[in-house]
């Protein structure tokens, strides 16, 4: 039994079964034994690989997306350039290198990072130190003024609650101990959950046995971002507003399903074995997030498949430009990366891009239309 499994087991013996969100929080972020607290999980030697670690083209195109937003917004200076969960800092380093081609952008930005892991913070300091980043513990610590925010594979790491529909009501799925008093398993709470307005609204025609997820932390964070984007300029004339780009794997429209998964060494793992040793993630419910953002006052855009989004931003042209100076082996790598990022059977469709913007903000690149109208009815 790992040290963290022992801590969780003792808590369950003491207090009874715990919610999945509590279990995920402990497994991912326990200050001493949590998955993200102790390691660099990315890359070939880790447990998973993300788009910016596959190819520099990903971060470069996101950097140009940010610079384009900044230009369309009238070159505000200063503005906060924020990244949630920057991993090794690779995405932001590639983004800033590409955006350096837009005069004034680098000088105007105040780089702000939100990161829970000390190991990854140290790597971000190495990759981005020359840009003098500031690490925030919460978005409320952001200075007044416009923001451009990006988050790649961040929302999938946020803990959520899970419920099963039984006899006309939602019952929470709780983490409890197995018969051996050491292993963990999910069990449906016998009593119905007391207050489930969002589940009732998302899934009015739920069937017996349906399982649905409630991403409370993701919903409060997206609402906070949307509120920040829709804030009016302050009385002293400081401008506000801005845009946010969310990239992640997930679904739209909402549907009842259980998406919790664990990855270890690039392979599926049981989420209830050895908590803290494997990455735990969920698929992002884009419909619920965009609806919450719209309700909090932001315009919402997308989602569109990551493949279509990157192609709209000029992936083909960037790959061609890189290929002109590349060896034949490098050209093969560029092609393989492009395929992996955009192919519908790889990361092109399951991975999605969505944006939020302040109500008066110009249309962000890569999105043909707003989603706001589509939130009106059920998702
Ligand atoms: C899957 S990694 C993605 C890293 C990077 N964005 C990329 O694309 O390579 C998730 C990132 O979010 C951070 N993270 C996870 N949960 C967090 C939380 N609750 N608060 C702050 N950072 C968190 C992790 O430490 C890591 O940097």
Summarize the structure.
This protein is α/β, with parallel strands linked by helices and 379 residues long. 36% of the residues lie in helices and 22% in strands.
Write the layout of secondary structure elements.
Blueprint: H1 3-15, E1 18-19, H2 20-29, H3 35-38, H4 51-54, H5 56-72, E2 79-84, H6 90-99, H7 105-108, E3 109-114, H8 118-128, E4 134-135, E5 147-152, E6 161-166, E7 169-177, E8 184-188, H9 197-202, E9 211-214, H10 216-229, E10 242-251, E11 261-264, E12 267-269, E13 279-281, E14 284-285, H11 286-295, E15 299-305, H12 306-313, H13 315-324, H14 328-342, E16 351-357
Parallel strand pairs: 2-3, 2-5, 3-4, 5-10, 10-14
Antiparallel strand pairs: 1-7, 6-7, 6-9, 7-8, 10-16, 11-12, 11-13, 15-16
Bound molecules: S-adenosylmethionine.
S-adenosylmethionine binds near residues 87, 91 and 120.
Question: How would you describe the overall organization of this protein?
Answer:
- With 379 residues, the chain is an alpha/beta fold.
- It has a domain at 39-156 and 224-249 and 283-375: 3-Layer(aba) Sandwich (Rossmann fold), CATH 3.40.50.
- The chain contains 14 helices and 16 strands.
- It has helices spanning 3-15, 20-29, 35-38, 51-54, 56-72, 90-99, 105-108, 118-128, 197-202, 216-229, 286-295, 306-313, 315-324, 328-342, and strands at residues 18-19, 79-84, 109-114, 134-135, 147-152, 161-166, 169-177, 184-188, 211-214, 242-251, 261-264, 267-269, 279-281, 284-285, 299-305, 351-357.
- Strands 2, 3, 4, 5, 10, 14, 15 and 16 form an 8-stranded mixed sheet that branches.
- Helix 5 (56-72) crosses helix 6 (90-99) and helix 13 (315-324) packs antiparallel against helix 14 (328-342).
- The chain is globular, with a radius of gyration of 21 Å.
- The chain starts with a helix and ends in a 22-residue tail after the last strand.
- 46% of the residues are buried.
- The mean pLDDT is 94.
- The protein binds S-adenosylmethionine.
- The site of S-adenosylmethionine has 19 residues, from helix 4.
């Amino acid at each position: 039994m790992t040290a963290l499994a022992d801590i969780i087991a003792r808590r369950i013996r003491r207090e009874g079964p715990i919610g999945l969100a509590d279990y995920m929080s402990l497994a991912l972020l326990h200050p001493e034994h949590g998955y993200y607290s102790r390691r660099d999980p990315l890359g070939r030697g880790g447990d998973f690989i993300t788009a910016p670690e596959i190819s520099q083209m990903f971060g470069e195109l996101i950097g140009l997306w940010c610079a384009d937003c900044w230009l369309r917004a009238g070159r505000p200076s200063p503005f906060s350039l924020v990244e949630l969960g920057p991993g090794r800092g690779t995405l932001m380093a590639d983004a800033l290198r590409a955006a350096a081609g837009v005069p004034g952008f680098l000088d105007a930005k105040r780089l702000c990072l939100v990161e829970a892991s000390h190991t990854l913070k140290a790597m971000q300091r190495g990759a981005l130190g020359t840009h003098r980043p500031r690490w925030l513990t919460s978005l409320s610590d952001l200075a007044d003024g416009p923001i451009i925010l990006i988050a790649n594979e961040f929302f999938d790491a946020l803990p959520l609650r899970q419920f099963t529909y039984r006899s006309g009501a939602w019952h929470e799925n709780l983490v409890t101990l197995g018969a051996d008093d050491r292993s963990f398993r999910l069990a449906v709470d016998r009593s119905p959950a007391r207050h489930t307005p969002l589940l009732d609204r998302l899934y009015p025609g739920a069937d017996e046995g349906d399982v649905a997820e409630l991403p409370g932390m993701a919903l409060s964070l997206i609402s906070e971002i949307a509120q920040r984007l829709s804030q009016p300029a302050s009385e002293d004339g400081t401008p506000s507003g801005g845009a946010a780009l969310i990239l992640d794997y997930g679904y739209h429209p909402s549907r009842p399903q259980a998406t919790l998964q664990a990855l270890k060494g690039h392979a599926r793992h049981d989420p209830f074995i050895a908590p803290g040793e494997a990455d735990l993630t969920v698929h992002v419910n884009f419909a619920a997030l965009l609806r919450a953002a719209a309700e909090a006052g932001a315009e919402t855009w997308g989602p569109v498949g990551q493949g279509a989004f990157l192609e709209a931003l000029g992936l083909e042209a960037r790959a061609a430009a890189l290929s002109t100076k590349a060896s034949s082996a490098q050209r093969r790598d560029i092609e393989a990366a492009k395929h992996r990022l955009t192919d519908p059977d790889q990361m092109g469709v399951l991975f999605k891009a969505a944006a939020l913007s302040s109500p008066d903000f110009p249309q962000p690149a890569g999105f043909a239309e707003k989603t706001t109208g589509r939130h009106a009815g059920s998702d």
